Amino acid sequence: MYSADRPVDCGWHRIHIGRQPIHDDTGALVAYELLFRSHAHAAGASARGAEATSQVIVNAFSEFGLERLTGSRLCFINLTREFLVGELPLPFDSGSVVLEVLESVSIDDQVISGVRKLAEQGFAIALDDFVLGNEHERLLDVASYVKLEVSGVHPELLRTRVAVCRAYKGLRLVAERLETPEDLKFARELGFDLFQGYLLGKPRVLSLDTLEPSRLRHLALISKLADEQTDLEEVVRIVTSDPALSYRILRAANSAAVGLWQRISSVNDAIMIMGTERLRHWVTLMLLSDVVGTDGDVEADRMSHILTRARLCQLLSKPLGLPSDKAFTVGLLSGVADLLGVAPAELISHLALSQDVSDAVIDEYGPLGSVVTTAKAYESGNLPEEKNTQPDRLAHAYLSAVDWSMNIITSV
After folding, report:
1. 159 Cβ contact partners less than 8 Å away, ≥ 6 residues apart
2. Mean predicted lDDT score pLDDT of the chain
3. Where does residue 145 fall: left (phi above 0), alpha (psi -120 to 50 degrees), or beta otherwise?
4. Beta 204-210 vs 13-24: how paired, if at all?
5. Which of 7, 47, 203, 260 is most buried per CB count within 10 Å?
6. Count H helices, E strands: the chain?
7. What is the pLDDT of residues 373-397, one digit of tens each?
């Protein structure tokens, strides 16, 4: 699903994320910094602030998948004030994520308190573009990393900054903006622990084609999740009414940062496991990240096609005694793969789905696979005779699925 030049088409849009390597003193790759990028050839960030940070988080965790971007390596993510003080949520666990306090953040008591709380939750804190005399020194005792620019900085000034940081036990120093061999040599002489810069590797922009969720459904879901008497069945209904949102929730639930060790067989499972609070955090960031810009809305007829298949699989599963939520999820993922034009195995390669669901989506194998095979055959008018023993029942189920999907699209 990574793509460099695939043309934009209705039904999906392209997202991007920058990734710059960080090396240790042996030259080994030990971490990546994730950066906002608006297009595949962007040399830098065209947007900053909470919206850009939200898009990086959403794209990393619920679209690409953090394990796909960084593997087992550390991941540095820039945070703005809104995230540091808790005005916007961090919907993931600490894990291997390092939170960078941007140099543009004004340090006050509220920021200090927020950063300390994040550190107490297990997050490693990094101070970005650290300089003396701008109040960021107040965070040195809670930080795990300090990033210091090398290129263009007077050698004695850099020595002074390093000396101040070395007074804090356990603090690791990251030499950034390394642009020449001389920069790297000097950074090594000063005893830096980690190294980052164009000399070692420029940010690489990764692109991914994905569905665009409906903002209306985001809003409806946030509203529903804000209610203390939330009906989880209604939450599931809203999520499953939008294929893109369903896929994002599945990806987020399967993200390595969520810390799940069990297999997920349906959207309902994902929602139950995540819980309403974490789900609300994710949906809030998804809505905010979409403010940065998209390539267009998913056409209603294509959305309806996916939902119709998912609903038809669900209806066909019931008389067979199969779990209807699994059948819906199989039909949904099958439809998303068709819309994106990718192999089902590629689409779900980083989803920890239960084996029966995975087999059904990839190979249409097993009882659930038979259901999706029947649904797809009926859609195309190529239903084999042995499958066509109850044409009236199939026709009724299909018309019911079409009616359901259209009602869903027009009601949310």
Report:
1. 190
2. 81
3. beta
4. antiparallel
5. 203
6. 16, 9
7. 999 999 888 776 555 456 778 889 9
Sequence spans of domains, the chain: 13-207, 213-292, 300-411
35: nearest Cα among 4, 86, 69, 5: 69
Secondary structure class of 144 (helix, strand, coil):
coil
Residue type for position 140: L
**CATH 3.20.20.450 corresponds to the domain 13-207:** yes
Q: How far apart are CA 307 and CA 406, in angstroms?
A: 9
**Cα dihedral sign for 150, 154, 156, 157?**
negative
CA–CA–CA angle 86, 102, 208 (5° rounding) = 85
Could you tell me the two tokens for 5?
A: 């030049």
pLDDT of 55-100, one tens digit each?
A: 888 788 877 878 888 888 999 999 988 889 887 778 777 778 999 9
State CA 28 to chain mean position distance.
26
What's the rounded mean pLDDT across residues 286-311?
64
pLDDT tier at 6, thresholds 50, 70, 90: very low
pLDDT given for residue 1 in this prediction: 35
Torsion of CA 62, 68, 74, 77, to 10 degrees: -40
Residue with tokens 């991914």: 208
Say how far apart CA 275 and CA 127 lie, in whole Å: 32
DSSP three-state, residue 271: helix
pTM: 0.64
Q: How far is CA 290 from the centre of its chain?
A: 12
Q: Report percent pLDDT > 90 for the chain.
A: 37
At 280, list the tokens. 């609300």
